[in-house]
Amino acid sequence: MIVTTFLKSLSRRKTLFSIGNENFLKKTFNTYDLISLGVGSTLGVGLYILPGSVVKNVTGPAIVFSFLIAAIISVLAGLCFAEFGAYSPSSGSIYSYCYATLGEFFAFIMGWNLLSQYIIGTASVVKALSIYIDSYMNNTIETHLREIYEIDVPYLSQYFDVLALLICILIAIALSFGLTESVLINNILTSVNVSLVLFFVIIGLPKINFSNWQLPPPSNISFNAGNGGFLPYGLTGVIQGAGVCFYGFIGFDSIATTGGEVKMPEKTFPIAIITTLAIVFAAYFSISTVLTLLVPYYLQDETAPLSYAFQYIGYNWAEWILNIGSLFGLCTALLGSFFPVSRILFAMSNDGLIFRSFSIINKKYNTPVIGTLCSGIITGIIAAIFDVDHLINLNSIGTLLSYTTIAICVIILRYAERYYDNISESNPLLIIEEKKILRQCELSYQRQKTNQIQINHTVSINVAIYCN
Fold this sequence. Notes:
The protein is an all-alpha fold. Helices cover 68% and strands 0% of the residues. It has helices at residues 2-10, 16-20, 31-42, 45-59, 63-87, 94-101, 104-135, 140-148, 162-177, 179-204, 234-245, 265-294, 305-312, 316-350, 369-385, 392-415, 429-446, 449-467.
């Protein structure tokens, strides 16, 4: 009897109608706000680092096709988010949709997967921002913290990054007590970030050289540069590059966590998600095109490719503008990636799967203050202690798992007539979702095997917590 009751609780589901009517947050976001949030969350660290390493070691100039493949897969995932968000807006994102289609157990697993995904992503941005700020002060903060106590443990940072912890706490306070003001600041920072992309493209266009797409690899380099030309690493490199470039599109799903705070979600969600992905793809495509036409693929800088490109053509003044502007880009990515954490906590707490205190709404500010502050402290500690570079791969594989799950949820939803009476069983979009699952599985296969081991360990821990 006890076992039967337990098994029933694992498959316990909620209706999409009940999920859509559990929103107690203030309606703050409009279409422009959502687009700004999505673009800001996505065009972060990846924009300033990702193209250089991928071009040099994986794809060559053919990175433009890798970004195209990653964008198509992201659009398919975006359509799933848009459909759920328009029909039943919720702050829980994939967690809430899993609860309605797969049951409580899978929702619990996916909820913790989302939390780890957003926390690790935010911690990586905070760490990058901390290092960036400290570099302008001649690494004074790092030097003093190393003198106090230096850490020599694998996977941990070499010092306790107090600056990263303080940044997280400040962002958490801002989102807790000034959501409207934070949205305005995010919109401004996102505009600066997009303007930076236009600046790089416009300034670099007069100096492009199409012969850089036809160069053979030189014989005096110390690494394997492939066969040269536009496809130095072949089609295999393009496919592998798509798996890496997919990291550049992580973040747009943060739009789905605003379901409880969006005005007219049935109209706003589809427009915001598709427009966000279009802007992000245009940014990556244009940046990669100009970058590979300015600098030969085998001479790309892996740490700061955009700045190095300006150095290569002798535009040192433009390099300084780019470096200062990238600071705003990191701040935008930080705001966008931090926001969903407290909303996922709010949704899970509201369902009784974690502490109820995380779902308490402040009457004055209409925000989950406790959940936001706690998530800020936890993220700050992770950013201060861990070497986040070792966690980025886990973040990528967790995102692929999330996108595959949302596609499965859409298929289940289409077959369940009690949820969608107004949708035909022969809807051709079902084929699109099935193809998307195959594409996500293919990208997952491109990731390293160690990532699969890490995600298996994470899921195992979540199962143990749920059973206890």
